């Protein structure tokens, strides 16, 4: 077995090379290796200085977070102790940073006396994205090496900075242009430092670089980030730690940082954020599909449909440098769609996100066409046409005739049966669902719908392609609405039923946004279009016909032409960016409640929250039981990245695990009893939910055999 740390002496310089690919995670073995080799270098009189480098494409990705839930995380030697020993070295220590130095990796570099970096390197402290703060001195040393305002931004945002910016700030001492010769340059730099008698640097001897910070700096900073940090626990603790660095000696700050780190680790927010971290990595593992399956080549893509969705999808591929055709049989609509894409890019250019040259380069990759004949050589086609099965059938029959063998035929359907779509072709193995979320050029989620006959290499191809276009692909099975929209259905059902029972839309939305959702259900309906949900219900009417109250308020709004933001009236009345309650909603609700014999009453915030969330979770349990999703974490990724569920709660299934599945079962049974016939109709715990709750188990641990 290869040693996690390599050691050699070259030109009088001890070279300590991190050798734990792929990311040099600072697990116990690597920490011990660093400690042992550094001790050798410190006691060897022939060693003039030390260089810490990496044998991998990156310097160090930070802590091995797999250890977080194990006894090894705090096992000796602990990282803070290893780093403090390096900082106290009586010989110069140089960090040779290639690729990335993140989290504990940057903290390792911070205790070195000097830092030289590859020109393409990036450095950062992203711990906040895991619900914690840097725990090995990052919050105390970084503000002593660079200005406090930049240090605080790096720590609270978690966003890495490039080598050039780090050098300008004083974090990197030297940038080397050729990554291939970085190690030689670092050794030469170390000898240069010894020869010039460059001073050793101990952060304990450095005050924080507060510069011209005003007395209200930290208060102003808290106010500036309040909206985006709402609900998260770690950002405030990051600020507290940096404040301490500005006012206390290093040893005091390190002790308080350690306390805040442990405090963060023991929060539901940290558990939720770390759950999502692992969920993203698990999502690429599709049951029954060998990840080593060779993918198909995708060098040219076609999008059918030039509307908002089609244009947004096209932009993803253009942004990735992939030549893209956009087909629309209506030439005027096609011209408008191309114009919208150009306008979007020009807006980005005005904001400084693109140059004029880049705009033209991207537009040059887009080829408009009104003829299916132009699709004969494409490797992937994605249709984004009207959400009706007969329309989809017509498109796929044509694609089956036109496209070359081996081309992947994808549907952007959000609800329809992909097996039925595939069945009209002679190549069902090439058909897959690729459900982009609107706006498609912004939203990260990509629901990958695996049909019964979809080939393994098609799945592997779209997973790799999804990453290439910077999406988060999650594979799901075929059912009405797949995972996201199927789970949305009972959530929406209950929100609209609560309006019928007497809750005001603004109360429902307030309860849901206070819980952490990006938008309440009533506001979301107005944004998406009440007409869209009405048409979806019409296609699914047979499944809900037994409940005459089902979304009846929405139906009446649709019938009188109130379709939400697009018409200026829905659950709310819209005047520019302002909105106010639509009094018609309560009038409709009273009339329909009287007609249907539904008693109107005052409804508590707690009931609103439970009646919206528990059916959502229950539907997720049914989805898991049916094998539509492979893991509960897949449901969570979909809901956090596609439906605005708060990341700091980890998704609906993680939230259920956090509060306890028995709590959810008890809540569902409570409303089943309280709501009479309606409760008997809709509030029945899923068998899997009951089974796991009875056994004291979690969704997280469930795997369908």
Description:
With 705 residues, this protein is of the alpha/beta class. It has four domains: 5-265, 2-enoyl-CoA Hydratase, Chain A, domain 1; 301-476, 3-Layer(aba) Sandwich (Rossmann fold), CATH 3.40.50; 482-602, N-(1-d-carboxylethyl)-l-norvaline Dehydrogenase, domain 2 (Orthogonal Bundle), CATH 1.10.1040.50; 604-705, N-(1-d-carboxylethyl)-l-norvaline Dehydrogenase, domain 2 (Orthogonal Bundle). It is built from 30 helices and 19 strands. The strands form four sheets. It has an eight-stranded mixed sheet, sandwiched between helices. Strands 1-2-3-4-6-9 form a six-stranded mixed sheet, sandwiched between helices. Strands 5-7-8 form a three-stranded mixed sheet. The two termini are 34 Å apart.
CATH C-level of the largest domain: Alpha Beta
User: What share of the residues does DSSP label as strand, in percent?
Assistant: 5-15%
Largest beta sheet, briefly?
8 strands, mixed
Q: Which spans of ≥5 residues are poorly predicted at pLDDT below 50?
A: none
Please outline what is shown here.
The chain has 30 helices and 19 strands. It is an alpha/beta fold.
Spell out the key features of this protein:
6-stranded mixed β-sheet; alpha/beta; globular; 8-stranded mixed β-sheet; 705 residues; 30 helices; N-(1-d-carboxylethyl)-l-norvaline Dehydrogenase, domain 2; 2-enoyl-CoA Hydratase, Chain A, domain 1; Rossmann fold; 19 strands; 12% strand; single chain; 4 domains
